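Support request, please re-run this one:
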Amino acid sequence: MRTDEKSCAGKIRDLLRMSGTADPMGFAMQAVRPLAIETMREAIVSCDCCPVSRQGRCLKTLPRGTEDASVLVICDCPTAGQWESGEPLQETLAGTREWAQVIKKVLDAYGINEKALFFVNAMACYPAEPAGTGYAGRYPTVDELAYCKTFVDYAFKIVDPVLVLLLGQYALNAVKEDSVVIREHGKFVKVRGTMAMPTYRAASSW
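Re-run finished. Output below.
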């Protein structure tokens, strides 16, 4: 820890003592969560770790959710529509598709409101390559997914989820590398000590 960091850490400890909280760790985590979310979003915007993120036409899906979120939703790669709009997944619980019904049942069983969800993508950028006068979608590479796994890991730290929802194969592999979603769909699995529900991706990318 650098000298300036040690100084800041000391000031934070003094503030926590002044607060009189009985749970300084929980209090500190809650207080810094908005900053952590902001920092994560900025890191994704400025990321240029892989060829996709460095290409001229690259819009990224950003994490979204409330500061009090307790459920982490890991989405698959962005869809073509999200890539065009630059917006994160909005329609997670809309419609009557099987995956939506599975998610609703899980949330109801846990008594969790949709407002408790925090979304992050297994890959922030839409994996596309120049093709003719436009771009064509493709499957992400192992290296590209590995770069974005850093953001998934950070989302776990921010949310400290009581439940994880995994929407698609790449979302599942971000936390369980050798699993196949067609086998795990609709079943509870243990992920980093937390119950997780894998299901199919919310929409088709290509």
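Helices lie at 3-19, 24-46, 51-54, 80-85, 98-110, 142-159, 169-173, 181-184. The longest strand covers residues 194-199.
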